[in-house]
Design goal:
The complex is a heterodimer of chains A (130) and B (579).
Chain A (H helix, E strand, L loop, with lengths): L1 H25 L2 H28 L19 E4 L4 H18 L4 H22 L3
Helix pairs in contact in A: 1-2, 3-4
Chain B lengths: L1 E4 L3 E2 L5 H16 L3 H7 L3 H31 L8 H36 L8 H20 L27 H30 L12 H32 L13 H35 L6 H15 L15 H10 L1 H15 L8 H23 L2 H7 L3 H31 L5 H27 L16 H30 L29 E2 L7 H6 L15 H6 L4
Parallel strand pairs in B: 2-3
Classes of the chains: A mainly alpha (130), B mainly alpha (579).
């Protein structure tokens, strides 16, 4: 987890420096805000990963000498198939059409999105391994 | 319905443990939906990746046809093949389709989706349902964008950059612009979700022993691309929502009259737009870095240098957005010029390493390798003129001329098309267990390579002569016609090359040449499993001791050495060629 964290913290450090240089040379607020935002985008997950790295040490995928057996156990749960992403996608499709063409698309859009959110949650609960 | 995945067991060449796992997965697949419902409900990264690739290739052909119509229009002065309004729609949609809907999604939605989980030894992407949602958002966004041609007033016609105030409700009325904005909101979310998915997959689902510095360069580049997506796309989506508010809800964010700033749009757009160029380039650098070592029979030269060059390019690319805005007179020229010029350094390192990989290798000029070498020439030319344009005095002179058009077409054609098709020819056997026809592939390459230079080199000259971008007609007395005719002929040579590709895809599908699991004797982990891979990818994994686990497994007499251990491995590798 260390390298992963350092990549993101590197993003934060680089954009922190660039943001500071940019602000003090241009005093332009739009670009500075975006650079500061990018710095935070690296800092928040980067420091979180680093904290986890300090807590749990190296995982099998972080150790160059790990064997396949070291990763034994459950990896994760993967859905075999699911209709709900399609339903949610079509709901989002109708939602944007509502903005472009008129509000009559809005009601089926909300209906599809809510159905999909309930459906996907129920599916995850039934699976038992979220 | 869910599958609980246990880790694949290690194998010793025999498929003893693996067969059981594969049968279990096939049984599972048989119990699932069939036919079109299977496609609609699939959360398998391979099905989703393939859907992405097919969709984006269809859009690529559509955008290519638009390009041909534009080239026909420009072949003669004062041509009236299309009206001014139609020409504006054509160049807007050509750019939008190529940049937003082909080049990016083909790489990070298609190839990365398919290949990255395989390269890291994962059973699927980290969030398979989110992955499926990404595809449906991308598909519906693409359909939304094409719907622009069906509405009154036509499709969006303000260029793919949608500069304010041209894109406001007064200057670009009608549903076309709204549809364009909404299509990009959908595809923007799709890209963000894919970015999250790729980062999580690479961080959490790597096989034991596959440390970060053993990941294939393609996976590294996709990780960096995904981080760039997460930096850039939210800015675009936010900017588009504000543009929509300006058009419909009476806000004045980008209008001077209400106290807003049109330059703010340019700042926001290019803060997305320049990283976007590298979102379109880095995955393709990754493809080339996979292809060149395999067909040079050597490990990649300067692995860590490649990784740090990728990271540097990505970091610098986010600090150079205003080099698109030099002529506004409102940006800090030294800052943006310096950072833009600096990008040439890590890119140069990459070129050095690609050549170093080929150096004294046993080069096999397969189609994929030819496309990779073609990429080196094309991208070098586009890159050198990019360095020129990073200098404000040159940019002031050539801004908005065909010089810039030629520059970015050479860059993007070099990456998305040359390297993209290198990837297609290289990984097609992985997808189907069959090869594309090599001799047709070579016809495809040479026609495209010739067409590429014939099309774009005259555009540099005509740009220096002063021909502006985005004009549908030009007067006959300026001497621009001969260059435009050459360029149009080149465009049709490129079109012929893509007809060859279509024929190749058709004939290779109808009369398949079965090629086995690893026809190229390739290095990286994705070639360890069967071609095409089974549901959830791996029944067993090799021990991972270098960045070339499949090579190590197949060539125990000449394993790749871990980085930094100070031995030149390629001499021993050469002994094993052909075994």
């Amino acid at each position: 987890m260390r390298i992963e964290a350092l990549v993101l913290i590197g993003v934060a450090i680089f954009f922190g420096i660039v943001g500071a240089v940019y602000w003090f040379t241009s005093y332009e607020d739009g670009g500075t805000m975006m650079l500061v935002g990018t710095c935070l985008l690296g800092l928040l997950p980067g420091s979180y990963y680093y904290w986890w790295h300090r807590r749990m040490g190296d995982r099998p995928e972080d150790r160059p000498d790990a064997t396949v057996e070291d990763g034994a156990g459950e990896i994760a749960t993967f859905p075999g198939s699911s209709i709900w992403p399609f339903v949610l996608g079509m709901g989002a499709f109708m939602l944007v059409l509502a903005f472009a063409f008129g509000m009559w698309f809005f009601f089926p859009a909300v209906g599809l999105i809510l159905t999909a959110l309930v459906g996907v949650t129920a599916e995850s609960r039934r699976g038992g391994h979220v | 319905m869910t599958d609980l995945i246990n880790p694949p067991l290690t194998g010793n060449g025999a498929h003893g443990t693996s067969v059981i796992d594969i049968i279990e997965h096939r049984e599972h697949a048989e119990h699932g939906p069939t036919g079109i419902l299977k496609w609609l409900t699939s959360t398998d990264h391979k099905v989703i990746g393939m859907s992405y690739m097919i969709t984006s290739l269809v859009l690529f052909y559509m955008a290519g046809i638009m390009a041909l119509v534009m080239r026909l229009q420009l072949a003669t002065p004062n041509s009236s093949l299309v009206s001014f309004a139609q020409y504006n729609e054509l160049f807007t949609m050509h750019g939008s389709l190529m940049l937003y809907l082909f080049a990016g999604p083909f790489a990070f939605g298609g190839l990365a989706n398919y290949i990255v989980p395989l390269q890291v030894g994962a059973p699927d992407m980290a969030f398979p349902r989110l992955n499926a949602l990404s595809y449906w958002l991308y598909l519906s966004g693409s359909i939304t964008m094409m719907m622009g041609f069906l509405v009154a007033g036509g499709a969006a016609s303000f260029g793919w950059v949608a500069y304010a105030p041209l894109s406001n409700a007064t200057n670009s009325p009608g549903a076309g612009g709204d549809i364009w904005i909404m299509a990009l909101v959908l595809t923007g979310f799709s890209a963000i979700f894919t970015g999250v998915n790729l980062v999580a997959t690479i961080f959490y689902l790597r096989a034991p022993g596959l440390t970060m510095f053993r990941m294939p360069i393609f996976t590294w580049n996709m990780l960096v691309t995904a981080i760039l997506i997460l930096i850039a796309f939210p800015v675009l989506t936010a900017a588009l929502v504000m543009l929509f508010c300006d058009r419909h809800f009476g806000t004045h964010i980008y209008s001077v009259q209400g106290g807003g700033s049109p330059i703010l749009w340019q700042n926001l757009f290019w803060f997305f737009g320049h990283p976007e160029v590298y979102i379109l380039a880095l995955p393709y650098f990754g493809i080339v870095t996979e292809v060149i070592p395999v067909f040079s029979r050597k490990p990649v030269f300067g692995y860590k240098g490649m990784v740090f060059a990728t990271l540097s390019i990505a970091a610098l690319s986010t600090g150079v957005w205003a080099h698109h805005m030099f002529t506004t007179g409102l940006v800090l020229l030294p800052f943006f010029s310096l950072l833009s010029l600096l990008i040439a350094v890590p890119t140069g390192i990459k070129f050095f390493n690609w050549i170093g990989t080929m150096w004294r290798g046993e080069i096999q000029f397969s189609t994929a390798m030819l496309f990779s070498i073609g990429f080196l020439f094309a991208f070098l030319m586009g890159g050198v003129t990019g360095v020129m344009l990073a200098s404000p005095p040159i940019d002031f002179f050539t801004h908005d001329t065909y010089f810039v058009v030629a520059h970015f077409h050479q860059v993007l054609f070099g990456t998305a098309v040359f390297a993209g098709f290198a990837g297609l020819y290289y990984w097609y056997p992985k997808f189907f267990g069959r090869t594309l026809r090599e001799h047709l592939g070579k016809w495809h390459f040479w026609l495209m390579f010739i067409g590429f230079w014939v099309t774009f080199m005259p555009q540099y000259i005509v740009g220096l002569l002063g021909m502006p971008r985005r004009v549908a007609v030009y007067p006959s007395y300026l001497g621009w016609q001969s260059y435009n005719i050459i360029s149009t002929v080149g465009a049709f040579i490129i079109a012929a090359s893509f007809a060859v590709l279509l024929w190749n895809l058709w004939i290779s599908w109808r009369k398949p040449v079965v090629c086995g699991d690893n026809p190229w004797d390739a290095h990286t982990l994705e070639w360890f499993t069967t071609s095409p891979p089974p549901h959830h990818n791996y029944s067993h994994l090799p021990p991972i001791r270098s960045e070339r686990p499949t090579w190590d497994y197949n060539h125990p007499e000449a394993p790749a050495v871990g980085h930094g251990e100070g031995r030149e491995p390629h001499r021993r590798d050469k002994v094993t060629v052909g075994q």
